[in-house]
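Support reply, case 0932

Customer input (verbatim):
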Amino acid sequence: MTAHTPHTPPFRDRRLPFAKRIDDLLSRLTLDEKIGFLHQFTPAVERLGIAAFRTGQEALHGVAWMGPATVFPQAVGLGATWNTDLVRRIGEAVSKETRAMRARDDRVGLNVWSPTVNLLRHPLWGRGEEGYSEDPGLTSAIATAYTRGLRGDHPTYWRTAPVLKHWLAHNNETGRDVTSSSVRPRVLNEYDLRAFRATVEAGATAGVMPAYNLVNGRPNHVSPYLREHLRTWTDQDLLVCSDAGAPSNLVDSEHYFDTHEEATAAALLAGVDSFTDHGTDSSLITARVRGALDRGLLTEADLDTAVRRQLSVRFRLGEFDPEYDPYALTRDFDTQTHRALAQEAAEQAVVLLKNSAGLLPLAPDTRLAVIGLLADECKLDWYSGTLIHRSTPLEGLYERFGAQRVEFAEGVDRVLLRTSAGAFLHVPEADAGDEVRGAGGALDPALLAGRTDLPALTTGPAGTELALVDWGEGVLTLRAPDGRYLSVAEDGRVRASADQPGGWVVQETFRLEPHANGHLLRHIGTGHHVSVAADGVRVAESGPEVFELIVVERGEDAVARVAAQADVVLVVAGNDPHINGRETEDRTTLALPAHQERLLRAARAANPSTVLALVSAYPYAVDPAELPAVLWTSHGGQAAGTALARVLAGDVSPAGRLPQTWYADDADLPDLLDYDVIGGRQTYLYFEGTPLFPFGHGLSYASFSYADLATRTADGSLHVTFAVTNTGDMTADEVAQVYFRAVDPTVPRPRRELLAHGRLRLEPGERRELAFEVPLSAFDFWDVARDGWRREPGAYEVLAGASSEDVRLRTTVVLDGEPAAPRPVLRRGLPAADFDEQSGVAIVDRTKSSGDAVTAAEGGSGELLYRDCDFGDGVTEVTVTVAGEGTVEVSPAGGAVSAALTSKAAGSDPYDYRTLTARIVAEGVRDVRIGLRGPLRLAHVGFSG
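Our regenerated output:
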């Protein structure tokens, strides 16, 4: 054991608690060294023997960006398993591989930026693949399981230190660094904060990362919620790491502060401890911190607070006790256990959406036609590692049914491109060393987009037939016969050089634009058109080539030919995770790309026994009416194809469940920036329409019965028990789900809300009793009248079943609570954001550091309603706190305007508040309506007698 001696400073003494060791180390650091700690890339302090440190290692579903690693299903697929034990084991495997990879490459960090716990509120959000569910309870349960696996189970030392992304209310990529999410207090507390809170309270997370967006007019990187909520949930030091470039956004794109010194100081004081900005170059951040210190915006004590939180994480990771770190020698990498776990996860993530006439599982002697753009693909996303092993649906079906029983048609159009001079676009042959795949079909990691050592495309009398893959919304990729995608390197030349579309800026996507009697070919990555020059084909700002598109074979024709000869057709459709919906890019529609719809129709017309397998990061609005069977799975990582084949063959009964609502039409969706899930009736909690497939939905090859639902209250909890029996003839998993709804609420409450769930495996005929203990606080809602949680006394229906709509059992419990009381407006007044209903109003920041105000969102006019305001024996005066120019109309009787208070702005400062007073007469309990006319900000309304 390391002891404290004259030659061993206390921070090296393992006998001391971490807090005292950190105190000692802080006292030894110079001011410049402390400043250096504030950047993502912290330099070494050689005089103290302290190594360099980097915050941030992506590990969402496997170690990402650091080369080969085990690749598990996307996060949304892990959410679809509804299996917390499985997800915990995956987190454990990922953290072990992180440690093993770090042992041979010190660029691999132990502070992992995972998981993403943003809720899947809106299915068009481009990063939906990164989240777990639209339900905050399910999200936090899965996130807690993953972080526990990442953390490890040692009481003192952590295997990795997970950071949750992205704080807070972040569901849009369009304008993500400048748009504000208007989040009313009920939605904030009941929905968005809830997804983070349970995971933080579980003690398995090291911190959070703020999101790029603003919430209620204030950037998340200066959010008071970090102090007012996050840090009150635990007594542990939490590390807050900025998102990349976000500190600079505070000035550069958001214009929230005038100088970077002000912005950096405000972020640090709000609770940001590590600044991820300008890559490895820390000079700009450190200069801004020094400037803030020189201007008196920060003190050294403020720096100490942030550095302490960083050091707390580093001590927990065992950095200062390497000989006692239980994970120091972890070398588990690509083990048989990890490979089996990847397959188990991929199998459990498959959701059977429809299975009429018992078409699935497939009979062993089925002659199968496999069709579609994703049938022979194993797609990766932005947060994937490099595949060591791969399995496509086609490969999995070949293995399971035999290649002689499976026919394949990709369904892409085969085209030639002819120039205006009559020559054809030509792809030079690759040398033997440039093959796309090595032995056994393994990917060649050397074949990357951006290579300049391959010959550029040329033109000539003999053209190359290209596979034109239409991904929808006018976006297409072009692929050479040997499987290489056309890509554009930094020199602007077009080469067949990419194994897959990918990268932060995708260089493999194009658009065909009608022009004269042909088409221009625009490269989306650069925005320039393809031109033909003497030295090869390239993209350029001028001189675009006009191409004639010659279709050699339509994809539909190949599909019809193959489908007609099969017993069953499997159409594999979906998305490429780098195209039309990803980080920086939201989707525009739920519809399946038109080309894939055409392939599906062609297959169905040729063979009614057509199964649709959607492999996608998102829900789609597909019409299942004429399809006998439909499945969905996320991109399932390295074992995706094997898993899908085993489910189709009946080796595994599907038991995945939808973690989000699948809507039938774009018209069912709110605006992407409407974050009011209550007022906008969003997600399964409030949606009043008919979904295509409901939250929690998923079928099985077995059948299950539910019986004997019983409830009782004791020790502050509701105890729920019921029995589930496998009434089918095969072993299968069932996901039993428990919901509740308030029977007669006085405020809008969810139609039903998930209380608990359990995934269990049952043999044929096996019966098992399930027991759940739910804290009574789960029935509370945020009461804006009292600015706190309240449980209404009365009846609550408890529902048990196989999905949010497939309810098998129900009972009613009567719970005690606190009865509703009128708003005490004489004591509290009306904080403007604590409305019950609104129309045309957005919540904005009252000041740059704290508080909320409201303003008319569009058209300069908005309405607010506050219910049951208690004026006692009567009031005669109303006071409003406002900034800006406009009029506040107050109507306490709910009828004609009783008072109109007009503000005339004295300047351009939106935070220059003033108090206006007018006469008003009101008594007793009544609703208050307030109208906002003009671009003013209303912070508070008060009344007096």
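We compared this against your earlier run and they match. Two observations from our side: Residues 825-944 form a domain with the Jelly Rolls fold (CATH 2.60.120.260). Residues 434-447 have pLDDT under 50 and may be disordered. Please reopen the case if you see a mismatch on your end.
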